Amino acid sequence: MAELAFVDKVAARAGVPPEQARPLTEAVLRTLTERISGGEAAALSPHLADELSPLLIKATEAPEVFGYDEFLRRVADRSGLDRAVAERGVRAVLQTMHRVVGFREFEDAMTQLPADLRALAQPLPHGP
């Protein structure tokens, strides 16, 4: 998938303009890379556009351990956007990745996240 298509999908899912979706996408990928193992990040990397895949390369194998609030704080700080937009961005990036990465690779990476972060990768249930 081309980078533009990925970022456009993130923009649509997060309800933000494309010029905000790009830094949001980069912030989520960088933070995800810190939170999962080097092996899992490397398994996800080839599925993204050439411009985005380097964001999933890390120097160490060990993941950092931090929770939902810290994940959102890092994304908000890196993207320069507020927490509510950061949360929508995390949801949008994870859901977009779920579509472009093979099911098994995506699920393997998600198992390294706390349940509340994993839940963001699931589509929102539709109301009655």
Descriptive overview:
This protein is mainly alpha-helical and 128 residues long. The protein has one domain: Uncharacterized conserved protein DUF2267 (Globin-like, Orthogonal Bundle), CATH 1.10.490.110. The chain is 63% helix and 0% strand. It is built from seven helices and no strands. It has helices spanning 3-14, 18-35, 38-44, 68-79, 83-100, 103-110, 115-120. Helix 1 crosses helix 2 (18-35), helix 1 crosses helix 5 and helix 4 (68-79) packs across helix 5 (83-100). The chain is globular. The mean pLDDT is 92.
Return the average pLDDT rounded to an integer: 92
CATH superfamily: Uncharacterized conserved protein DUF2267
CATH architecture classification:
Orthogonal Bundle
- List the secondary-structure elements in sequence, H or E: HHHHHHH
Largest sheet: none
Parts with pLDDT < 50 across at least 5 consecutive residues = none
Count of discrete alpha- or pi-helical segments spanning 4 or more residues: 7
Please report the total strand number as a whole number: 0
Features:
mainly alpha; globular; 128 residues; Globin-like
Explain briefly what this protein structure is:
With 128 residues, the chain is an all-alpha fold. It is 63% helix and 0% strand. Helix 1 crosses helix 2.
